[in-house]
Amino acid sequence: MAKSKTSYQCTECGWQTTKWVGQCRECQAWSTLEEHTPTAQTATGPVTALAPKSAAKPINEISAHLTARRSTGVSELDRVLGGGIVPGAVILLTGEPGVGKSTLLLEVSAKAAAQSRADQKNPVLYITGEESAAQVRLRAERIEALDEDLLLASETELGAILGHIEAHQPSLVVIDSIQTMFSANVEGSAGGIAQVRAVASALIAVAKQQNVPVLLVGHVTKDGNIAGPRVLEHLVDVVCHFEGERHAQLRLLRAIKNRYGATDEVGCFEMSDAGIKGLADPSGLFLDEVAAQVPGTCVTVTLEGRRPLATQLQALVARAGAGSPRRTTSGVDNSRVAMMLAVCQARLGIDFSSLEVYVSTVGGAKTTEPAVDLCLALALISAASDRSPKADLVAIGEVGLTGQLRSVSGMQRRLSEAARLGFKQALVPSQGFQPQFAPKGMKVTPVSSLKEAVAFALGQGQK
């Protein structure tokens, strides 16, 4: 018999090589290659045609009532999924450790169990592989997620999990997490490429055959990518990413892939000691209530997917001591701050070279889109000149290197959100602006350059 040839396989992307190397040539990850001995493959001949299990039908004659969406009980999760969970769908939820993935799915499981009992359907099955059943019970008590129709089991072997599914015929299955599960028929440790692929394929097959939705928790690498083989993303129907800073209350849920809906919706959640709750109106987290206008503050409206969020930027300018002046940012792209400082100096003659600059958002918000340029520039100039912007003013627009303002997408949605929050005035780029974009009761002032915007927002004599 021919001797099996040993190769090395990347645990991140599945790339193979005959010799061990320190860095994967495909995904550029370091120290991820493990020794892999392929199993013997039998030669196959021509494939014989078989009788189909079901006859092909015209697409308009196929009933869709079995795929009607079912609400999860969490409105923000339903928003991201496109209205609810589709029966038979396999959803992968990823995120950094401690962000709240297990807490969110435990709350979803409890609400789905209560809904199943009301609809006289089968219970919900929650499989935990990272914690004991008693530990999950403690968390459920803390977040008030106890329900008699929520079945809990601590298992890591695929055969036992399939046995639970066959015995209880659940209406929803939650697996926490896919990297801790293993199959006794597959070589390798739990979390490896072969194990993750085998476990995921078996669970997907059960989901499609029994028309039961499955929620999978997935780990991420230190770079924020989904751990395990990349094929896992292609096997599942929906991939959602749960993100947020540990020191902040806000959590954002984004759909990276969605076969049954759009991927431009964002769900907002608030993390507290009592668990995670959805935020239908998260703009209040990003606005600082002050009695009077303060120099160095300005409000803009960003877009997270299709969702407008009002965000307040705060800037502080101080005389530098010995050495180079500091440029410190929090929640704002450092390169955009540097660019706005250069534009203000070149086009308006404001010298920041000897000043320390600090820029931050309120509530832990993150702003990366160009639409925050105008608000950022006004906050910096307001702090440097010690002049407060006009009251109830929002500034939206991209600032070019020439000092001209450029239009941004979703202007009508941004202005409508600002008007709903009580803002009475708005500064927007004149390029691409149409009068019908202005909401009722709001004065919208189109400007073509940063110089015009500064003259309107700060005036000449406001202190």
List how many beta strands DSSP finds. Answer: 21
Terminal residue distance: 89 Å
Strand arrangement in the largest pleated sheet: 6-5-7-8-4-9-10-11-12
**Going by CATH, what is the homologous superfamily of the largest domain?**
P-loop containing nucleotide triphosphate hydrolases
Tell me the β content.
15-25%
Rg estimate, integer Å? 27 Å
Structural class, from secondary structure content?
alpha/beta
Number of helices: 10
- Spatial shape: globular
Q: What are the low-pLDDT stretches, counting only 5+ consecutive residues below 50?
A: none
CATH topology grouping of the largest domain: Rossmann fold
Question: Care to describe what's here?
Answer:
Keywords: ATP-binding, DNA damage, DNA repair, DNA-binding, Hydrolase, Metal-binding, Nucleotide-binding, Stress response, Zinc, Zinc-finger. Residues 66-220 form the RecA family profile domain. This is DNA repair protein RadA. The strands form 5 sheets. Strands 6-5-7-8-4-9-10-11-12 form a 9-stranded mixed beta sheet, sandwiched between helices. The chain has a 4-stranded mixed beta sheet with strand order 13-14-16-15. Strands 2-1-3 form a 3-stranded antiparallel beta sheet, with no helix packed on it. It is built from 10 helices and 21 strands. Helix 3 (133-142) links the parallel strand 5 (124-128) and strand 6. With 463 residues, the chain is α/β, with parallel strands linked by helices. It is globular. The mean pLDDT is 87. The N and C termini lie far apart (89 Å). The longest helix is centred in the first third of the chain and has 18 residues, at 101-118. Helix 7 packs across helix 8 and helix 8 (373-385) crosses helix 10 (450-458). It has 3 domains: 1-36; 67-280, Rossmann fold (3-Layer(aba) Sandwich), CATH 3.40.50.300; 285-458, Ribosomal Protein S5, domain 2.
